[in-house]
């Protein structure tokens, strides 16, 4: 390679290294873009009804914060009460179970006594695991300030993007060559529509799962049924792993009433998730976003490995956007054009910004056709 090629290679390597170092910041920026896109689409719906842009944005932001505050208001107080009760009910249950085992040892042959488990020894063996869990919880609490800072960063970026989305979009489009800017603008439109479709489908599925969970837990007379249902619906935003995460607190709270309710809650959640995955999601997402199940799972594993929990939460919107860019740029504009003969017909698009208007882009298309030759 010559000197110019070496310089280009070094520049690419350095760029990839810098992007890797700031990957968490880029992920937070993407979260702000997704949130701003959602609120902007909601504001546009209000604008269609005759509402002014400023009032529509304020109303959209107010709805968003109302939903967030309502979520924590429904979730936090019941969970604190129930899990405080759980902290002293579980040791009592262990003591009662240990008493049953001691009584069982007196009634069975002595040869079978060594096979009866000892609760105290099991607790001692589980002590290192409990210590690791408590250590992880302490690390999570100690890092809560960092989480608050990241949330505030996302909210501030969302507000800036929502104030004037076209200006930031225009800056992004100008990164590309002039002949490709109109194409990029069209790809961004498709990304926006796909994100809106994913959000709409996810909200519908989340509402159905939450409603079914509340009804089922109420019929089983499980405490904090409303809070558990709302949590199940929210965690349904994380496919595959979210349902597993939502069943754990429900089973723990069901343990406060009766042991049989634990099994009943597990069966209820299995039925709900099978209904959601086999009926609700295919119907809702069929006209919204088409992603293969294996692609969804692989994307979750990939993003959670490199970006942690935030990457897991944003895995689906990241996959939706990545799919559109790969399909439009790599497949349609690059791979589908390989082997085509462009010597006979060439077409180019020149996009320019008139000096008096920066919002409307003009395109000029010119086609040059060569006359056929005898060799052809």
UniProtKB/TrEMBL annotation:
It is a multi-pass membrane protein. Keywords: Membrane, Transmembrane, Transmembrane helix. Its main location: membrane. The chain crosses the membrane at residues 6-35, 55-76, 138-162, 193-214, 292-316. InterPro entries: AI-2E-like. Pfam families: AI-2E_transport. The keyword DNA repair does not apply. This is AI-2E family transporter. The keyword Transcription does not apply. Residues 352-376 are annotated as: Disordered. Belongs to the autoinducer-2 exporter (AI-2E) (TC 2.A.86) family. GO terms for cellular component: membrane. It is found in: Membrane. One of its GO terms (biological process) is transmembrane transport.
């Amino acid at each position: 390679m010559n000197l110019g090629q070496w310089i280009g290679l070094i520049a690419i390597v350095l760029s990839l290294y810098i992007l890797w170092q700031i990957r968490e910041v880029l992920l937070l920026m993407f979260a702000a873009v997704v949130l701003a896109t959602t609120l902007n689409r909601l504001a546009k719906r209000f604008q269609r009804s005759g509402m002014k842009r400023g009032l529509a944005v304020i109303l959209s932001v107010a709805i968003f914060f109302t939903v967030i505050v309502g979520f924590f208001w429904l979730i936090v107080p019941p969970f604190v009460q129930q899990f405080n009760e759980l902290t002293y009910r579980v040791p009592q249950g262990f003591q009662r179970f240990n008493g049953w085992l001691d009584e069982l040892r007196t009634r069975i042959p002595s040869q079978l006594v060594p096979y009866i488990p000892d609760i105290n020894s099991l607790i001692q063996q589980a002590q290192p695991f409990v210590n690791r869990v408590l250590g992880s919880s302490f690390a999570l609490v100690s890092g809560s300030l960092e989480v608050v800072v990241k949330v505030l960063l996302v909210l501030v970026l969302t507000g800036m993007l929502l104030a004037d989305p076209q200006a930031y979009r225009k800056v992004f489009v100008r990164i590309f060559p002039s002949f490709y800017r109109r194409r990029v603008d069209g790809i961004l439109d498709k990304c926006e529509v796909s994100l809106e479709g994913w959000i709409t489908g996810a909200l519908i599925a989340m509402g159905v799962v939450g409603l079914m969970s509340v009804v089922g837990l109420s019929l089983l007379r499980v405490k904090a049924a409303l809070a558990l249902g709302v949590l199940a619906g929210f965690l349904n935003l994380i496919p595959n792993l979210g349902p597993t995460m939502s069943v754990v607190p429900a089973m723990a709270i069901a343990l406060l009433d009766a042991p049989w309710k634990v099994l009943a809650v597990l069966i209820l959640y299995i039925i709900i998730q099978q209904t959601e995955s086999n009926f609700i999601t295919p119907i809702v997402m069929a006209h919204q976003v088409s992603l293969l199940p294996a692609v969804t799972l692989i994307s979750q594993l990939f993003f959670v490995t490199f970006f942690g929990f935030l990457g897991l939460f944003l895995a689906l919107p990241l996959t939706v956007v990545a799919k559109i860019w790969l399909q439009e740029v790599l497949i349609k504009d690059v791979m589908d054009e390989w082997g085509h003969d462009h010597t006979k017909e060439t077409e180019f698009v020149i996009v320019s910004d008139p000096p008096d208007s920066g919002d409307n882009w003009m395109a000029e298309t010119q086609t040059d056709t060569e006359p056929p030759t005898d060799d052809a």
